[in-house]
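Lay summary

Proteins are chains of building blocks that fold into shapes. Our project writes down both the chain and a compact code for its shape. Here are two examples, one after the other.
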Amino acid sequence: MKSALVLFAYAAILVTGGVYAFLGAPEGANAATALIVPGACAAVMIVLGFIIVSAMPDNPKSAERVHIAAIVLALVFAIAFGFRATSAAKAQGAYITAQSAWQTAVTTNDIEDSPEAKIAFFEARNAPDHSKAYLGNTLWILMGFSALAMVAMLATRPGKRLRPARTTPDEDYDER
């Protein structure tokens, strides 16, 4: 039961992260993706949580298999969020460099200050025309919570508790 609660809490964090990224996305960003991907990951975890809850009383082996699947998926999500966060960080670096060059070009009147000119300027430098900081920060946080969820799932794994020490001596043991 604890493992299902971990999955439900993890799903809530994923949805919260998606909503945060969606609301924090600047104009021109693909904000819908920032909401859809964590939402889909959360939906998968909720389904696994309900499977664990429903299978635990009748079929603990099946519940344990689903539990292992949830651990693996949390790891996969952590890796995916980390890779995407790295990509967003690189894009953010390119944006900062291009933004600085854009400000200099506009200040010195080397270029017209228009939305079309800005888009062309940033495209010529292979940089996004908006900040990716909102996305990178959110993805790093989701990666951390995914790793935390994986560890919590390992800690709540059913059937893998420490066994109590024996209270009676072995029959084969000779007490001389």
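And here is the second example, written the same way.
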Amino acid sequence: MHAGRLNMKKKMATGTSSCLSFGEPGLDRFFGPLEPGTITYIESSTSFLFDVTYKIIAAALRDLRSRAVHVDGCNMLNPYRMVKTMKRFRMNSANALERVSVCRAFTAYQMSAIIDNALEERVRDAALLVVSGIQYLYQDRDMRHKEAKVMLRRASHIIGELTARFGLVTVISDIMRPHTRYLGDILTDVCHRHVGFARLGKGIRLSDLGAGVAVDHKPVPPYQTILDEFEAHWDGLSRPAL
């Protein structure tokens, strides 16, 4: 690990908000708690990434009782899927959606403008920052590779500084497509954990790319409750919503 990355990690180790879980036992066992002031970078070759994004946003709204900011660079956010996830978390979806700030970027220049000029104001009272499709946007073939690297490096540095200053739980994610230029090493320099999702039969292979550890996960549809979740929500007094 080079000195710049080490210094960034030390700076980002401070945070005041609570740790965050994904709200699904299988994912929580793999990730462990997501700590404030840290960045998790997820590379995925499957749309399972979208479901994980909805779950982490819903968990932040429910457990941290704060706002979430989603900078969406790959047109990921589907309000209908988000509402389904919130219902699974037994939340009032109308009230919860009001606490999610969404900034959409359709080009690398728009992404850079949002991160440079608007992101700090958005995250001041938030606990969670999700940035989706950041590497995807900087893959534009009309953009010179050198320019893409400079812009992405600046964006990742700003995300790191804001994560540290405001004690954010930050998740950066990308859908990996074949035949694209790889820029992910810039993002791994500021992240604390680098994980990958890949389709494996009817399940998903979850890989901790830094630790060299992988586990297999079988996701369920948003409207279903797994046994662990049923037991976790059972309080002996009221039956969980079906």
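What can we say about the second shape? The first strand starts at residue 38 and ends at 44.
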